Amino acid sequence: MTQIEPEHVGSRPHLATEHLEELGAVARRYLSEEITDEHLEGVVTAISRHARERGMKAEELIVACKEIWHGLPADSLHNERSTRTKKLERLVTICIDGYFADR
Asked: What whole-number distance in Å separates Cα of residue 32 and Cα of residue 77?
């Protein structure tokens, strides 16, 4: 899996290491259908709100989510491109909804 470093260039805010790890774990479990959409929503929404509170831009959060997603093993149970794409779209939607919730 691609390792996303929480470091940043200049003074840009970033996700804490524990949130990157949690996001990777929940994405992996979601892809292999070990968790429900509701569980995914709970975790990703919390991380998205944390990112907003730290001053990350929404697009920075989305890039981090996509980098984590594309680092997931290609040989997972649901390796079909269409399934992976739909699940990634769901993950990104949850990130956006969570980021802009309560605004």
From this structure: 6
For the stretch 24-43, pLDDT in tens is 999 999 988 899 999 999 99
Residue 53: both structure tokens together: 């509170």
Q: Outline where 1-103 has alpha helix (H).
A: 17-31, 37-53, 58-70, 81-100
Structure tokens at 3: 């390792």
- Ranked by mean pLDDT, the top range of 11-15, 30-34, 79-83, 95-99 is 95-99
Closest Cα partner for 67 from 9, 10, 15, 32?
A: 15
Q: What is the pTM of this model?
A: 0.80
What is the spatial distance between Cα 52 and Cα 99, in angstroms, rounded to a whole number? 6
Q: What is the mean pLDDT of residues 84-88?
A: 91
Vertex 58 angle, CA 54 and 59, to 5°: 125
Biggest CA pair distance of the chain:
39
